[in-house]
Amino acid sequence: MTPPTAPTAPPTEPAAPLPKLADFLCFAIYSANLAYGRAYKSILDELGVTYTQWIAIVALWEQDDQTVSGLGEKLFLESNTLTPILKKLETLGYLQRRRDTADERQVRVSLTEAGRRLREKGAQRTLVKASGLAPEEFRMIQKTVSRLRDSLLAHAESGK
């Protein structure tokens, strides 16, 4: 009598290789953000501000006299992160903060003349050329990354 043979498992497909770090879009964006910080360093050092201070000035230049909460939404910053940035910019003389006369719970921020001059000085310094991209490619990537950000935020807010 021959012993029964064990059933054989059907052949399996080889497992797909796991993605490498360089395959992650999130890492590409994260590391590009770090590279931007390094590339902007000389510009921001010359202006005497940090990146987050700079984007606050740019946002106020686009729409002056806005609430701290509105500015925070625009910059994707929480109030506890934004407030120290605004205090520093106020100390440097680039903006002023004041209570809203219609609703004293709200704080409004606006650029001073020095803040407007700083924005004009910094506006001439861009990294389009340093990116190695043609201006059209640069704009396309900026729009694509913004759409990606908005989609991811919508997904996160939906709880799915």
Automatic annotation (TrEMBL):
It comes from Nitrospirillum iridis. SUPFAM superfamilies: Winged helix' DNA-binding domain (SSF46785). One of its GO terms (cellular component) is cytoplasm. The keyword Cytoplasm applies. The lineage of its organism: Bacteria, Pseudomonadati, Pseudomonadota, Alphaproteobacteria, Rhodospirillales. This is DNA-binding MarR family transcriptional regulator. GO terms for biological process: response to stress. Residues 22-150 form the HTH marR-type domain. Keywords: Cytoplasm, DNA-binding, Transcription, Transcription regulation. One of its GO terms (molecular function) is DNA-binding transcription factor activity. The keyword DNA-binding applies. It is found in: Cytoplasm. Pfam families: Staph_reg_Sar_Rot.
